[in-house]
Write a structure and sequence with these properties.
By secondary structure, the chain is mainly α. The protein has one domain (4-178): 2-Layer Sandwich (Protein Binding, DinI Protein, Chain A). The chain has helices at 4-20, 36-42, 44-79, 87-141, 168-178, and strands at 31-34, 145-148. The longest helix has 55 residues, at 87-141. It is rod-shaped and about 90 Å long. The chain starts with a helix and ends with a helix. The relative contact order is 0.18.
Length: 180
């Protein structure tokens, strides 16, 4: 079974073959490749956005760590064999622990959702900006298409390309020009 990315790549290749055939028989079809992650990591605006994302995540992580520490301290109090809690006080502390544990789980899930949403928004915004910069580079340098390489962590889309087809640095320059 063919994955969606493989099907997309096959479709692009077929489209380029048709497009580059009769219309431009004397000119070779030029396809560039780009590393979108590198564009985000090496542009001024991308670096700022990643730092903002990191700060956003760290703020939430500090809150979670604080809540977690509070839960550990309460649990140690309940487990202390030398503790002099009455049965009523112990029951109250156990109820307090259960309530805080539930609140902790809820907050953790909510923060994870918020961080994932912010990451998706960042990716969508920068994908649009990278596409705009890539379009300008393609038009200036005569490429009929610029394809994302993909990533080793997920799926490598471009398995091989000549190094001269990598337009990542040109897109980084154009991106910085468009997004000061």
């Amino acid at each position: 079974m063919m994955s969606a990315a493989s099907a997309l790549l096959v479709g692009i290749v077929l489209l380029l073959a048709q497009w580059g055939g009769p219309l431009h028989a004397k000119e070779p079809v030029r396809v560039g490749v780009i590393d979108q992650q590198m564009v985000i990591e090496r542009t001024k605006a991308g670096k700022l956005a990643l730092e903002d994302m990191k700060g956003y995540s760290m703020t939430r992580q500090k809150i979670i760590s604080s809540d977690e520490q509070e839960l550990k301290e309460l649990q140690l109090l309940l487990e202390d064999p030398n503790g002099k809690l009455t049965d009523a006080a112990r029951q109250e502390k156990e109820e307090q622990f259960r309530g805080k544990a539930e609140a902790f789980q809820h907050r953790l899930q909510e923060f994870n959702r918020e961080v994932q949403l912010k990451q998706r928004e960042l990716v969508a915004e920068y994908s649009r900006k990278i596409a705009a910069a890539a379009q300008v580079v393609a038009q200036k340098e005569g490429y009929v298409a610029i394809v994302d390489k993909g990533s080793d962590a997920l799926m490598r889309i471009v398995l091989y390309h000549q190094p001269t087809l990598d337009v990542t640095q040109s897109v980084i320059k154009e991106f910085d020009r468009q997004n000061p």
